[in-house]
């Protein structure tokens, strides 16, 4: 499993763009982790699935509500990663009103979850291989803080906990 001091694997995630912009077209666009984290402080949290109850009601909204505080504490971007496709993540972003506040990134084939050792097998529940719920603080792609949740919990990867840890650094 990934640990504090490790570099996030240099993989590609996908992000659904609502508007055409510099270097990105409408629809799914590649996000190369290595270049997207270079020189930045990123608050990253992962959820088992978009539109799922805890993720939609508590986990993501906490980061949305605390977004300005993360920015004031030195975070350049907040990322939410889930093992869903970019279209689902785009729809969830619209539903949650995250545009310009949180980047919702798709780990469609669970490559990041597998590479970090943070997979969650929900096959018996019809959800297949997913990501565990966790949060991490990245500086220039290196893990500075890592909080991995116990099964079915939201106690250590919430926005308040990561924000307190960020402020303590």
From TrEMBL:
Reaction equations catalysed: a hydroperoxide + 2 glutathione = an alcohol + glutathione disulfide + H2O
Protein name: Glutathione-dependent peroxiredoxin
Its biological purpose: Thiol-specific peroxidase that catalyzes the reduction of hydrogen peroxide and organic hydroperoxides to water and alcohols, respectively. Plays a role in cell protection against oxidative stress by detoxifying peroxides.
UniProt keyword annotation of Oxidoreductase present: yes
Family: Belongs to the peroxiredoxin family. Prx5 subfamily.
Signal peptide start and end residues: none
Source species taxonomy: Bacteria, Pseudomonadati, Pseudomonadota, Betaproteobacteria, Burkholderiales
EC number: 1.11.1.27
GO CC entries: cytoplasm
């Amino acid at each position: 499993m990934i640990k504090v001091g490790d570099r996030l694997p240099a993989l590609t995630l996908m992000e659904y763009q609502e508007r055409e912009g510099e270097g990105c077209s409408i629809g799914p666009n590649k996000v190369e982790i290595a270049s997207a984290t270079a020189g930045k402080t990123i608050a990253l949290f992962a959820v088992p699935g978009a539109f799922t109850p805890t993720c939609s009601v508590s986990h993501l909204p906490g980061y949305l509500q605390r977004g300005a505080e993360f920015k004031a504490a030195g975070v350049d971007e907040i990322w939410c990663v889930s093992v869903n496709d970019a279209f689902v993540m785009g729809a969830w972003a619209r539903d949650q009103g995250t545009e310009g506040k949180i980047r919702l990134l798709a780990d469609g084939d669970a490559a990041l979850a597998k590479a970090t050792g943070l997979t969650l097998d929900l096959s018996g529940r019809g959800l297949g291989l997913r990501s565990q719920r966790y949060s991490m603080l990245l500086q220039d792609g290196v893990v500075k803080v890592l909080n991995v949740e116990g099964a079915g919990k939201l106690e250590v990867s919430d926005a308040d906990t990561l924000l307190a840890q960020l402020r303590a650094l």
